[in-house]
Amino acid sequence: MALLLAGCASKQVNWTVPTIGVNDGVVDFRGNIFPDSFDKLQAVVGAGPVRRLRIHSGGGDVIAATRIARWVHANRIDVEVVGPCFSSCANYIFPAGKEKYISGRGLVAWHGTAGHRLYLHQTGAKKMAPDELALFDKAAKAERDFFAETGINSFVSWFGKLAPYNAPKFYILSKEDMAWFGMTGLHVRDDYTTLGFGPLNDKNKNDFILVKVDRTVTDVAGPGREGAATGR
Question: Which domains are present in the chain?
Answer without folding.
Answer: 2-154 (3.90.226)
